[in-house]
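Page 42, continued from yesterday. The earlier attempt failed because a stray header line got pasted into the input along with the sequence. Redoing it now with the clean sequence only.
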Amino acid sequence: MLDHTNPANLTHWAERVDMAAAFRWTERLDMHEGVANHFSLAVNDDGTRFLMNPNQMHFRRIKASDLLLLDANDPTTMDQPNAPDPTAWGLHGSIHRLCPHARCVMHVHSIHATVLASLADSRLPPIDQNCATFFNRYVIDDGYGGLAFEEEGTRCAAMLSDPKIKVMIMGNHGVLVIGDSAADAFNRLYYFERAAETYIRALQTGQPLRVLSDEIAEKTAQELDAYPEQAEAHMSEIKAILDEEGSSYAG
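This time it went through. C-alpha cells are written below.
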C-alpha cells in the first residue's frame, strides 16, 4: 500500500485522497473532457469552504496535494495567482454558497448523460434497476444560458434547493451530481452514466420499453438509498486498485 501520510501544511487529507481517486477513475472510464469539468467537496459545516481541482489540469494527473482550497464567500478568489477556472468558480462556488446540503458536487460532460441531456425529452424512465435509482431524484435544467459563469451558476444552484434532488440533467450541457462525500457523489455519477447508457441503447433498438411502475421504481430507489456502504466500498476498491498500480494520486 502507498503511504497516504499528510504532507506538511495540507489539511483535509483523507478528503483530498478520495477526490484525487475520483478524478483518476473518471478519466479511466472516459467520462472526463480534456482539461475541462470539475469536482468540488465542502470541508466546513456550512459548505462554503471547498476543495476543487486546479485550472486546466487533466484528471489523469491530479494528485491529492494539487487540490485548491477555496472560500465561496471570498470575492478576491478570481484575482489570486492560483485562481480556479472561472466557469468552475461560477458553478461550484454558487452551489456551495447557496446549497449547504450539497457537500460534494461533480460535473462532467460524459457521453451518455450528455446524449440524454441533448434530447427534447431528457427524462430518464425507470426501465431497469439503475434507472430506478434516480426516480424522482433528478431535475432537468432546460434553460441553458451559455458557459457557467456566476450568473448561470446561481441559476443552477436555485434548482438544487430540494435535498432530495441528487442529479441535475443539464440540458444541452451535461450532468451534475451531488453527494454527502466524494465516495457518495462518485458512486452516483458512475451509476447515472450507466443508467443513461442503458436507456440510450434501449432507445436505439426501436422496440417498446419495459417501464417499471411508479410504485416499484420508488421502492427500488428507497432500497438503494439505504443500501449499506456501497459507495464507501466502491471508493475503497478504486483506491486499492490505484495503490496496487503504484498510482501517484495520493501524493
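Notes: The radius of gyration is 18 Å.
Reminder to self: strip header lines before submitting.
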